[in-house]
Specification:
Blueprint: H1 2-21, E1 36-41, E2 44-51, H2 54-59, E3 71-81, E4 84-85, E5 94-100, E6 103-111, E7 119-120, E8 125-132, H3 135-139, E9 147-148
Length: about 150
């Protein structure tokens, strides 16, 4: 009898994991296969692609030709740590917002797609929002602004 319950528990767990991997009904997915999430930064809403897998975190927005205004990418990082980003494969400028504890703790503005170095968060963070270059200036976003999704 104990084996039957164990088998049932394992089957239920596998079923729950399989359901979790399927997009929720009505969930919008980008043309790159990433789910969208609405991110509010200060007073502004951004339609961001959410990425969390190692492959998606590595690729980011690289090798794309554009990022429409009002769109972005929200990186769900595996740990709160000082993060290093680069402009590998970029074709357009970005603003990079470093986020922890629901607020912007640092920004990199109008980073050129040809920037050769590494961009480092000013302190440990666990989220990064990339938006089109000039976004922060255009909407008055500043360090300390609240962020939610």
């Amino acid at each position: 009898m104990r084996k039957v319950w164990l088998v049932l528990a394992v089957l239920m767990a596998c079923g729950c994991l399989a359901l979790a991997a399927v997009p929720a009904e009505g969930e919008e997915i980008s043309e790159y296969g990433n789910p969208f999430v609405w991110v509010t930064v200060g007073p502004v809403k951004v339609k961001a692609e959410a990425v969390a897998t190692p492959e998606k975190l590595y690729r980011g927005l690289g090798y794309r030709q554009e990022l429409p205004d009002g769109r972005g990418m929200l990186f769900f990082l595996p740990a709160t740590a000082v993060q290093n980003f680069c402009m590998r494969g970029m074709a357009f400028p970005l603003d990079i917002l470093w986020i922890v504890d629901g607020k912007v703790v640092g920004m990199e503005a109008k980073v050129a797609p040809t920037f050769p170095g590494t961009l480092r968060s000013p302190r440990p963070v666990n989220y990064v929002l990339e938006v089109p270059g000039g976004f922060a200036e255009r909407y008055g976003i500043k360090v300390g602004d609240p962020v939610s999704w």
